[in-house]
């Protein structure tokens, strides 16, 4: 009886799937793009020289490669977003305002805790002299910190 229980427990641990969260990297995304190109090239060749079944298989492989790329890209965006904003608290102690270009805002809205320093990783142009990117809830504002005027507004930048 003991042997059967031990055998069942061993089988259960071997057969139980382990949930592993794989981290997506930019290198993996580039690899996926290369795979899509190769699959498209195979599809072109199948269209020239292949049978209908080969063409159908090549199309399904291209479709699967594209789907995998979309999923990996979405995972990567989620990881980057979590990593950049995990520790910071961007919910301001004041209510949400919808800012427009040219409006003057008080200095409490662009304090040091709301400044976004990683503009290059967000694919934003470098701010000019005396300008800073400020996060206000899900909006991103380019503010002239000397005068307090809003230079540019990116609404819904952080979804």
From TrEMBL:
Q: Which Gene3D superfamilies match?
A: inner membrane protein cigr (3.10.450.160)
Could you tell me which Pfam families the record lists for this protein? Answer: RcnB
The superkingdom listed in its UniProt entry is Bacteria
UniProt keyword annotations, A-Z: Coiled coil, Signal
Q: Signal peptide: which range, if any?
A: 1-22
Provide the coiled-coil residue spans: 26-86
> This protein is called what?
RcnB family protein
Q: What is the lineage of its organism?
A: Bacteria, Pseudomonadati, Pseudomonadota, Alphaproteobacteria, Sphingomonadales
